[in-house]
Design brief:
The protein is of the alpha/beta class. The chain has two domains: 243 residues, Ribonuclease Z/Hydroxyacylglutathione hydrolase-like (Metallo-beta-lactamase, Chain A), CATH 3.60.15.10; 143 residues, Flavodoxin domain (Rossmann fold, 3-Layer(aba) Sandwich). The chain contains 13 helices and 23 strands. The protein binds MU-OXO-diiron. MU-OXO-diiron binds next to helix 2.
Length: 399
């Protein structure tokens, strides 16, 4: 049976939830599932905005078929060629032989790369500023290169002032029957996954996101319809503000995130001892993570949230403990900026992890290393009290 929701006059959600996929992009755990959002406009012309992942293809096809009620599908707008939205394009082209495909020039190239079926005679290139009039609705296209693929086009419906924003404003999490952000407690139940999605999927491309936000500022927007997660029709300022902070990699909270690698619990003890003293000093926004047991995508979401990061690492094979090394590599890959970082190093005979962490963080823009830190020889002793006190004091001074 079909599962559709009406967004506005003539506009319907025809997407689907996936709760079976363990890892999005085969990388990021999604215990709350994910939605693949597609939208159908039933006007004088019928227009589908994006297809869906092949895992939900059956539901997606049934939804489109149900709403079309035998009408032909005139257009499929390809906003993005990543397979979680593009996988069903060839199938839709076969089901709807009159359907034209609209997308950026680069989407046209990728169409040939992804599908053996020759769809070139049905593909029309559209670019920023182009208009598609469908009857009561007029759609314009907005280029959003590198948010987070190069060929991305967003679509704006002038009649309903809806911005179909491609992956921007998306989040992990199945919709579970709700389609609008105002139908759920977004701040309580969704924000962490939205931030984790942003940091890991889009985080590297803050500059292009800022460019698109500037373009969006010139539009009257009443609704934002992303390709994953809830649609925004109320309190748009809330999510626009988050996106502005996230895309400038500015902290959302003055908080402390302590991440440690620990082989036998001694470096973990130092991290916990620091956390206790910060908690005692009144720091409320405080989190501690074991890098061996917490997925890196969660850590990256937390780094995007908080202003201060503490990284603690044993020395391992003369270098960094592998989970800490992975964290530092990811921080570089996602271009983390504008954070205060304190370091805790451990080494029983030749501590080197501090030096290596410092070197790994050197190239990151506006990442300030605190002067204080801890150097541990095997295990933290009570004699390290002064060092600890200085570290706590310096962390507190920046909150
Ligand atoms: Fe949701 Fe970039 O695909």
């Amino acid at each position: 049976m079909h599962c559709t929701r009406k967004l506005a006059q003539d506009i319907y959600w025809v997407g689907a939830d996936d709760r079976r996929l363990e890892k999005f992009e085969n990388l990021f755990p999604i215990p709350r599932g994910v939605s693949y959002n597609s939208y159908l406009i039933l006007d004088e012309k019928t227009v589908l905005l994006d297809s869906a992942d092949e895992t939900v293809g059956r539901t997606f096809e049934a939804n489109v078929e149900h709403l079309l009620e035998g009408r032909p599908l005139d257009y499929l707008i390809i906003q993005h060629m990543e397979p979680d939205h593009a996988a069903c394009i060839a199938r839709m082209a076969q089901l709807y032989p009159e359907m034209k495909l609209l997308g950026s020039a680069q989407a046209g190239t990728m169409l040939k790369q992804f599908f053996p079926l020759d769809l070139s005679s049905r593909f029309e290139t559209v670019k920023e500023g182009d208009i598609l009039a469908t009857g009561n609705h007029t759609l314009s296209f907005i280029a959003a290169p590198m948010v987070h693929w190069p060929e991305v086009l967003m679509t704006y419906d002038m009649a309903t002032q809806t911005l179909f924003s491609a992956d921007a404003f998306g989040t992990f999490g199945a919709l579970n029957g709700h389609i609008f952000a105002d139908e759920v407690n977004f701040d309580r139940d969704w924000l962490d996954d939205a931030r984790r999605y942003y940091a890991n999927i889009v985080g590297k491309y803050g500059g292009p996101v800022q460019a698109v936000l500037k373009k969006a500022a010139s539009l009257q927007i009443s609704m934002i319809a992303p390709l994953h997660g809830p649609v925004w029709r109320q309190d748009l300022e809330y999510i626009l503000h988050k996106y502005d902070l996230w895309s400038r990699c500015q902290p959302e909270t003055q908080g402390v995130v302590i991440c440690y690698g620990s082989m036998y619990g001694n470096t973990a003890n130092a991290a916990n001892a620091l956390a206790c003293r910060l908690g005692e000093a009144g720091v409320k926004d405080l989190a501690v993570y074991d890098l061996s047991t917490t997925h890196l995508s969660t850590i990256m979401g937390e780094i995007w949230r908080a202003s201060t990061l503490v990284i603690a690492s044993p020395t391992y094979n003369g270098g960094l403990y592998p989970p800490v090394e992975a964290l530092l590599n990811d921080m570089k890959a996602l271009a983390v900026q504008n954070r205060r970082v304190a370091l805790i190093e451990n080494g029983s005979w030749a501590p080197a992890s501090g030096r290596m962490m410092r070197s790994a963080l050197e190239g990151l823009k506006n990442v300030t290393l605190l002067e204080s830190g801890l150097t541990i020889r095997s295990a933290l002793q009570e004699s390290a009290g002064e060092q600890m006190e200085a570290l706590v004091k310096e962390i507190l001074a920046g909150l």
